[in-house]
Amino acid sequence: MSAPSIGVLALQGDVREHTAALHAAGAVAVPVRRPQELAAVDGLVLPGGESTTMAKLADRFGLLGPLRAAVAGGLPVYGSCAGMIMLADRVLDAPADQQTLGGLDVTVRRNAFGRQVDSFESEVAIAGVEGGPVHAVFIRAPWVEAAGADVQVLGRVEGGPADGRIVAVRQGRLVATSFHPELTGDPRVHALFVELVQAARAEDLSSTGAAVGAGSEEKS
Ligand code: GLN
Q1: CATH number at residue 139
Q2: pLDDT of amino acid 207
Q3: Which ligand 1 atom is nearest residue 48's CA?
Q4: Hey, whose CA ends up nearest to atom 2 of ligand 1?
Q5: Could you give the CA distance from residue 3 to residue 168 in angstroms, rounded to a whole number?
């Protein structure tokens, strides 16, 4: 199968770093700013940045509706930090009018690690990522305060005041991390997402193939 084409929502945030990490993980990365660009990708990354600003810009660019529809329609999406907030069904410590895309059955708390700890780094073991823990960079990061039954916890903080807090999750085709793997030069988290995108493509192709097959059988 050819390399998947993965969009990076390019309204605000660390788009360039995600683009590089996706390349390193074997995908073709393309910026997404318009609904037509969104329609052409096999998967999407929502970068870190500022979720309130990102949501406002997405609204202004006419992307909120198409993004919600894409998530609901099964587009694989990986959200990092502000991107995790965008994917969350429930957000704590957010302005009352903050819009998200939703889709991920989690409650996230914005800026959860406390004001005095704007950023910190830690080693986090991620389920499905081989070769030892990843170096996780947290920048005014959210954590997952509660996760629904269908959400798989992929990683938690180990040690320190945030010990045990959930910082990486997956639900179906949606993946989210509180931290920024795109900043460390380690493409393993992006590789995990690229694998998910490949699997989703294969699944969609085989279900389309099955439908065509069934159709032609009926005719004969
Ligand atoms: N604190 C930011 C927000 O609420 C997220 C920070 C980040 O993406 N690094 O959107």
Answers
A1: 3.40.50.880
A2: 87
A3: 8
A4: 50
A5: 25
